Amino acid sequence: MSNLTFARTDTSILGRWWWTVDRWLLATVFLLVIVGMILLMAAGPAAADRIHADPFMFVRKQFFTMPFALALMLGVSMLSPLAVRKVGLIGFAITLLLLVVAPALGSEIKGSTRWLYIGGVSIQPSEFAKPCFAVVSGWVFSARHTSPGFPGYRIAVVLWLTLVGLLIIQPDLGQSMLVTAMWAAQFFLAGLHLFWVALLVAITLCGAVGAYFILPHVQKRVDSFLNPEGADTYQIQKAMQAFRDGGLFGRGPGEGTVKAALPDSHTDFIFAVAGEEFGMLVCLLVVGLFAFLVIRGMSRVMEENNLFVIIATGGLLVQFGTQAMVNMASSLHLMPTKGMTLPFISYGGSSIMGLGLGMGFILALTRKRWSSAIGETS
């Protein structure tokens, strides 16, 4: 059917895109979106009922936002690596400005000022800053190798400290740790010396310890994880009950009961809804989709000889995979809760749009070069 749609010699924008984009990555993203919509239809009404809203409020908003996120992803995926760098740089500059003004002009929700209202729309700048930072830092790291004398490492450190500092001010320790993990992976891909590895590990440990003693909500989450008997672990207990009740095959679509008592069932703990209603087998399928996407992306980019493409894509994939792992591990009580969404599955407008931008970057950077694509046999 695809051969009837686009011939390999089709030089139109869509034709070139179709034969160069990784359709396995594209299909995996759409599968995650479908899974997310099904799970949100299961968890959304219960979450809306708790705040006395229209039962399908969250579902309707997600269905409205998702086409824009997918359109953004597909549009960005058609860019060249040079255009990706430009978009990433412009996006990073804009989101840095928004992060600067967020503490003063933003809305406080659960003790953090992470959201800005622009034109009546709530925006979380950090969700867009993450993929843009991955592209910009990949550019800076690669320039260090392609342009002798360019202070790429120093600039990368300054950019990282600036972004992490603005995130901690909000405060948003989860996002700052996610950005740090991504940036560290890029530093490694750029040829990080063992001395800097040790220094980075030491700084990260000191930052984690400092956050524990300085930020009360971080201390509360860590204490709840280490000593659940003496802390408020209501959501974790409910999530674990959901997994136990679901068993291997689940209780069936719409038959879950724990979601009615789980405040963040449509966001941070949507994986628990999957466990109760669809069982462990579907949970393993979701894990497999995330793992396949990261592994496929890594294997694809390792065929590249463009250092910017390797470092930027590697960082984006680490960011995507780590976010998914943290969300699922938190739901399973394998680590302290972080308040992080499950990519393309959890409810959240800024999260979905930011993920669409990041996945668009990945698809654009992992596209085959046109000359090699038309040289392949059908």
UniProtKB/TrEMBL annotation:
Q: Which keywords, in A-to-Z order, does the entry hold?
A: Cell cycle, Cell division, Cell shape, Glycosyltransferase, Membrane, Peptidoglycan synthesis, Transferase, Transmembrane, Transmembrane helix
Organism domain of life: Bacteria
- Quote the InterPro entries the UniProt record gives: FtsW/RodA
- Where would you find the membrane-spanning parts of this chain? 24-43, 63-83, 89-107, 152-169, 181-214, 278-295, 307-324, 344-365
Coiled-coil intervals, chain numbering: none
GO CC annotations?
A: cell division site; plasma membrane
Statement: the UniProt record of this protein carries the keyword Cell division = yes
Its UniProt entry gives the catalysed reaction(s) as: [GlcNAc-(1->4)-Mur2Ac(oyl-L-Ala-gamma-D-Glu-L-Lys-D-Ala-D-Ala)](n)-di-trans,octa-cis-undecaprenyl diphosphate + beta-D-GlcNAc-(1->4)-Mur2Ac(oyl-L-Ala-gamma-D-Glu-L-Lys-D-Ala-D-Ala)-di-trans,octa-cis-undecaprenyl diphosphate = [GlcNAc-(1->4)-Mur2Ac(oyl-L-Ala-gamma-D-Glu-L-Lys-D-Ala-D-Ala)](n+1)-di-trans,octa-cis-undecaprenyl diphosphate + di-trans,octa-cis-undecaprenyl diphosphate + H(+)
- Record's keyword annotation contains Cell division: yes
Give its localization: Membrane
**Molecular function GO terms recorded:** lipid-linked peptidoglycan transporter activity; peptidoglycan glycosyltransferase activity
Q: What is its EC number?
A: 2.4.99.28
- Membrane topology term: Multi-pass membrane protein
Q: Name one Pfam family in it.
A: FTSW_RODA_SPOVE
Entry's Gene Ontology BP terms: cell division; peptidoglycan biosynthetic process; regulation of cell shape
As for family, the record states: Belongs to the SEDS family. FtsW subfamily.
Q: What is this protein called?
A: Probable peptidoglycan glycosyltransferase FtsW
Name the species this protein comes from: Insolitispirillum peregrinum
